[in-house]
Amino acid sequence: MDKIFEALASTARRKILAYLAETDLTAGEIAARFEMSKPAISKHLAILENAGLVQSEKRGQFVHYALVRENLVNTLNGFVQNICPVSLPLKRESADIARIRRTEPKE
Questions:
Q1: For residue 25, with 0-12 CB atoms within 10 Å meaning exposed, 13-18 middle and 19 or more buried, which class applies?
Q2: What PANTHER family does its record include (predicted)?
Q3: How far is residue 86's CA from residue 28's CA, in Å, rounded to a whole number?
């Protein structure tokens, strides 16, 4: 439980969870949304993964991150994000990315 509270204590990590609300993203796609170094983003992602809030999957040369949907904390966080003015635009962006990916032709 301490790992979860540590993970949620950071605004950047809560924003990462909001970005992952509707779709998975690569570490680079996540980093592009923040004004911090890629190593700093990697550290945040490692903390979230260690807390069981996100999972990673290597696909080719990229590592994709996704929410662990079965985690109760993510369910509660999703509820809070729906009423949090900071998270709403991030969740909309996540939904837009998911929508674009569904309509793109598969290679």
A1: buried
A2: TRANSCRIPTIONAL REGULATOR, ARSR FAMILY, TRANSCRIPTIONAL REPRESSOR SDPR
A3: 22
1-68 placed in CATH 3.30.70.260: no
Helix (H, G, I), strand (E, B) or coil at 85: coil
Question: What single DSSP character describes residue 66?
Answer: E
Instruction: Give me the sign of the Cα torsion angle 16, 55, 52, 81.
Output: positive
Q: pTM value?
A: 0.72
Assess contact for 91 and 81: CB atoms under 8 A: yes
**H/E run at residue 22:** none
| pLDDT digit string, tens, across residues 27-64 | 999 999 999 999 999 999 999 999 999 999 999 999 99
Q: Which residues on neighbouring strands pair with residue 26, listed in sequence order?
A: 64
